[in-house]
Amino acid sequence: MKQTVHDAIVIGSGPAGYTAAIYLGRAGYAPLVIAGALTPGGQLMNTTEVENFPGFPKAVLGPDLMNQMREQAEHFGAQIEYDDVVSVDLSGDIKRITTDGGEEYQTRAVVITTGSQYRKLEIPGEREFSGRGVSYCATCDGFFFKNKPIVVVGGGDSAMSDADFLTRFGSSVTLIHRRQGFRASKIMVDRAKANDKISFLLDSVVTRINGDGSGVTSLDVRNTATGQQSNIPANGVFVAIGFTPQTAFFNGQVDLDQDGYILVKGGSTKTSVPGVFAAGDVTDKIYRQAISAAGMGCRAALDAQEYLTSLDNR
């Protein structure tokens, strides 16, 4: 039996992927969205209140926002598959996509919205105590550290938001950052500084995570200015130091920058491969906002539509 050739496949989900699917669906292309097996919906599935997405003056829960986007995409004809892409063949007019479940899909256009994954500290103890005190998702795991000392590592918006959220559970929250200044926006820094349960340990890096059979017990910390070593008690360590784009499975078939983010041409979402487009955090390491990802997903869908029209007019 001849295999179906889709007009468009969206690899990934989140604000970029679901928005691309909405636009492609409304244009009549019935896109297939390969949304991921474990975290369909992207990083917002691990976020509590989203206060800066237009249209929600009283904020919206991240999972609720993603579920509404998914339902909207399905309403306009998108098909959602909950699987992970493990390899692709982007050569020629017909692209081939293989999933972890063993399915192979064919498509004329691809929109990549695979986002990024949590960056690790890569220090002794991190891997050993992952899931036993070391976490990368405050909203997922904060509950397990009620009345226990918590440390957040990082200096961006995510770190500030995590620290603020974790004060609901921890006996104390210490934010450790390698510099004096923060990457986070002023409003997020001000909010964290106004919270009496948050203390700051600046010009400092965690060098080792210590623990026993029950989990994490303390951290070894080095002051970057003086070199002084110290040990601080902690049962929960939440790492919020950025992300790594999920592009490894493309195996060099699209051009990437030195950090692994997909390069796009000018103000478009076109990659180095005709018929392949990218949107969201997989290509954006500056803004990294849900609304900018959604806007880029819209642009990717429009670029894909233009490409598909050009194929039909050959």
From TrEMBL:
It catalyses: [thioredoxin]-dithiol + NADP(+) = [thioredoxin]-disulfide + NADPH + H(+). Gene3D superfamilies: FAD/NAD(P)-binding domain (3.50.50.60). GO terms for molecular function: thioredoxin-disulfide reductase (NADPH) activity. It comes from Bifidobacterium apousia. Its cofactor is FAD. Homodimer. Belongs to the class-II pyridine nucleotide-disulfide oxidoreductase family. This is Thioredoxin reductase. GO terms for biological process: removal of superoxide radicals. GO terms for cellular component: cytoplasm.
